[in-house]
Amino acid sequence: MAALTFFILLSNLLISFLFYRHKNNHLSTFLAIHTHFFTDYLLFCFLNKLPLVIKKWTRSFYSALGLHYLCTMIEYIRGGIAELSPATAVIDCNGLGYAVNISLNTYAAIQGKKECKLYIYEAIREDAYILYGFADKQERELFLLLISVSGIGGNTARMILSALSPSELVNVISTENANLLKTVKGIGLKTAQRVIVDLKDKIKTGSAAAGDTGTIGGLLTAANAQIQEEAVAALTMLGFAQAPSQKVVLGILKEDPDASVEQVIKLALKRL
Fold it and tell me: Is the entire prediction scored with pTM above 0.85?
């Protein structure tokens, strides 16, 4: 663009100079031509910058409205599973392959199947168009709640939903267990606290866990949240990874909510 601008400037100066030489002291004509050139130059610059200005204004407008990711044109995709990994799935829909980012929960739900139906969330930005897929609407709703929290993006939300099942996440938020939430990779204590503060009033405890346990009775109570934390800490000190330990402990406490810390640890050692 700079080279083209310089070329136009040089060409117009040359034409103006030649015109002035041939017209002999027609200074007004020279000034008129020069003014016309300068106006053309300004118009040229404006037209080149206009798309960028419009793009910037549009981006700022949508950012102010919080519409960075707002787009729900695709409700779901149903088709054959062409490729599958714990992080992504390629769904063949009438010869068109959709690459969809998935959580470990969704991976477990569709693993071993030839066909599946994924509920879709479209993340559309100026530099990317990303699809996130979920085995059920409940997980997608939790995903949408997570990305509404400042500092939580699509990948971080997917990481949370991979480390915790929907019912476990609901339990963590409803019992305000920030210590468990911060064990998820990429989540610090402040972010975990922000998630809990922002979402604790939005979570429908009774219905959100329906996809996994069926009733609120399957969730942990605030009373044994401390037992869960102590058991996971003990297992971690013994050398077990946090994420598997958390899932095993949560499973044990769902089966026997009255179990003591010692009992939970002994059962967990048999399952890990």
Answer: no
